[in-house]
């Protein structure tokens, strides 16, 4: 007997953690989550449990899904997240029933479009989404580069100055927030990030406790930014020495001038100095700034692709 019920905040956090760790532990960029990290995640300004569903089969926890609605988005788009079924219960159609319930939840919340994503090597997920007539709208890539022999003299901007962010300075936080919103406003799925979200990402997010952020300065004006981070837990669990390019942006009038190259090289050197062996990042292949070409010039290679799907809910 299958029962699909709402997530109960304050009661189901351990259930979420157990399903998450069992279903996503084989992903190369995801590590085990602790109960404390789950509770910290719930403190995020954008976190929302109202669409989370738990599947139980004969009284046993079997899987979960999240029909996520971002209340700060102006468009009527909802997101399907964390579809996972425990190995013991796979092959019984539970994932499809969870997905059906999640879509119904988004419709009830007046969403017009559902969006989700899956790795290209997760054929079961691809099959389920395509079986519900989700259609591909985007492809993103995870890219990696060794931090040995970081290049120089590859058209980086020689006039720009890179300075570290004073992360506890309120004005610096506002500057980072403004630059991020301005540089990403043309991007797919953009919506302005709030100051509270920026602060959470800097100080509270459990995955990247080691972060360094910096600005590109030209003629005494900050015209770009970037950040790098290290997830010690991921590196320990996967036996890696990975550092991440968390974010990078350059104001539109200053693009194609080598400023992004300068920011990237600075970030890669920071990670190298912290003992990391590889730098990784995520990129939208249809990014309007054509960021993929920058990363390729710097020697990054695609190691995995994700497909973004959408489904009209009308």
Written account of the structure:
31% of the residues lie in helices and 32% in strands. It is of the alpha+beta class and 314 residues long.
Outline the fold blueprint.
Elements: E1 2-6, H1 13-24, H2 35-42, E2 52-57, E3 60-69, E4 77-85, H3 94-108, E5 113-119, H4 123-131, E6 135-146, E7 161-164, H5 170-183, H6 195-204, E8 210-218, E9 221-230, H7 232-238, E10 242-250, H8 259-273, E11 278-284, H9 291-297, E12 301-312
Parallel strand pairs: 4-5, 10-11
Antiparallel strand pairs: 1-2, 2-3, 3-4, 5-12, 6-11, 6-12, 7-8, 8-9, 9-10
Shape: globular
Q: Report the mean per-residue pLDDT as an integer.
A: 96
The description of the largest β-sheet is:
12 strands, mixed
Helical fraction: 25-40%
Order of helices and strands: EHHEEEHEHEEHHEEHEHEHE
With strands numbered from the N-terminus, the spatial order across the biggest sheet is: 1-2-3-4-5-12-6-11-10-9-8-7
Q: What's the number of helices?
A: 9
Percent of residues in beta strands?
A: 25-35%
Summing up helix and strand content along with how strands pair, one would put the structural category as: alpha+beta
Distance between the termini: 31 Å
Number of strands: 12
What are the segments in which pLDDT stays under 50 over at least 5 consecutive residues? none
Radius of gyration, in angstroms, nearest whole number: 20 Å
Features:
31% helix; single chain; alpha+beta; 314 residues; twelve-stranded mixed β-sheet
Task: Summarize this entry quickly.
With 314 residues, the protein is α+β, with helices and mostly antiparallel strands. It has helices spanning 13-24, 35-42, 94-108, 123-131, 170-183, 195-204, 232-238, 259-273, 291-297, and strands at residues 2-6, 52-57, 60-69, 77-85, 113-119, 135-146, 161-164, 210-218, 221-230, 242-250, 278-284, 301-312.
